[in-house]
Amino acid sequence: MDLIDGSAVEAQLIATGFALANRAASSCLREDSLPGPCGLHVATITAPVYFLDSEQSLDELIEAFERGTLPKKDWRHAAHVAVAGCYVLAYQRPEATTLVRHGILHLNRCHGTANTDHSGYHETLTLFWIARTGEFLAGCQPDASRIDKVRALVECFAPRRDLFREYYTFDVVRSVEARRRWVEPDATPEER
Predict the structure, then answer these.
(1) Rounded to 5 degrees, what angle do the CA atoms 12, 14, 20 make?
(2) Which of 20, 28, 102, 122 has the fewest beta carbons closer than 10 A?
(3) Each residue's pLDDT tens digit, 106-157
(4) CA distance 183 to 167
(5) Strand, coil or helix: what is 181?
(6) What is the C-alpha separation between 156 and 44, in angstroms, rounded?
(7) pTM of the complete model
(8) Three-state helix/strand/coil letters over 85-109
(9) Is 35 helix (H, G, I), strand (E, B) or coil?
């Protein structure tokens, strides 16, 4: 796959004003919930997510992700978001992006999922979610624990796995170009 340099993408994301966290995060707000570590009242996840039980379970998720031993049945959107959150909290954005990218490619190979023009790793969606993750976490209280930040992140974005559809006017999932390299959102703010 032809993947572009993460640092160039990071600069492009910043230059194009891709920071839309307030709008994305505000869509996670609920009046009937308690404020979280990011100052948001977020919806709670109805299905149990074992890796949000403790710091240790979150570490175990990351270890399984890195080793390629995370069961395929557990590699759902909530796990993707949690992994991205852990890397964005631990590393500068370009390095976090590289680690997530290589980790997904590796895990897919371990699962027997081909990384091709039509399946497996998707560069645009990965960068979209890393950007959303970074923006959300930037709004968290600095003294909140990693597990509390990641819980809030997953509570906000796990139920919204199709959020990217608000930013693209075409089928970004099926786009070979978007799977290979970053494609900027093309929906105007009025269309979102």
Answers:
(1) 120
(2) 102
(3) 999 999 999 999 999 999 999 999 999 999 999 999 999 999 999 999 999 9
(4) 11
(5) coil
(6) 8
(7) 0.79
(8) HHHHHHCCHHHHHHHHHHHHHHHHH
(9) strand
